[in-house]
Amino acid sequence: MSARTGSGPATVITAEQFAEFLPPAAEEVECDNTSERVWELPLPTDDLSIRVFSTIEGETSRGYGEDAIRTVVWSAKAGGPIGGETKTLRIDTWRKNLQAKLESAYANWRKFDHGTCPECGEGVLCEREGKYGDFLACSTWKGGRGCKFTRNLD
């Protein structure tokens, strides 16, 4: 079912369509600080998973411009997303677009599996891109606050 509003076509996604699309291993989970529905897809590590967020309410998604499907690499230790964030718009090609983003997350999750931060012991080390090249940084650093540990990648 499609509706045309705003600058482009929006596709209403039912909860059933979304659940059928996700891999069989996906499990809907509770997540603090969000009103979105969240599905967790396991990775071969105890700490990391891929989480998919969508504002499907009841049986369908919200209206145009109010919903996008977000995909992130999630750390249980850090208690939040640590990278790999993408957004999939609810347009007719949402399945193909989300599939590509999930495949990318599965292919690249190891970028976020560098262990516990040696400085603060609370965050996990994640690969980041900077103007001088790639480096590792503590996941607790947010906008100038938190642990500022970094290490260059050779």
Q: Can you describe what's shown?
A:
- The protein contains two helices and ten strands, in the order ββαβββββαβββ.
- The chain is mainly beta and 154 residues long.
- It is elongated, with a radius of gyration of 17 Å.
- It folds into two domains: 112 residues, no CATH class; 41 residues, no CATH class.
- Helix content is 14%, strand content 37%.
Strand order of the largest sheet: 3-4-5-6-7
Largest sheet: number of strands, sense, barrel closure:
5 strands, antiparallel
Radius of gyration: 17 Å
**In percent terms, what proportion of residues is strand?**
35-45%
C-alpha geometry: elongated
Order of helices and strands: EEHEEEEEHEEE
CA-CA gap between termini: 50 Å
Number of strands: 10
What's the quick description here?
The protein has 154 residues and is mainly beta.
Keywords:
five-stranded antiparallel beta sheet, 10 strands, mainly beta, 2 domains, 154 residues, three-stranded antiparallel beta sheet
Give the topology.
Blueprint: E1 2-5, E2 8-11, H1 15-21, E3 27-29, E4 37-42, E5 48-54, E6 68-75, E7 80-89, H2 94-108, E8 125-130, E9 133-138, E10 150-152
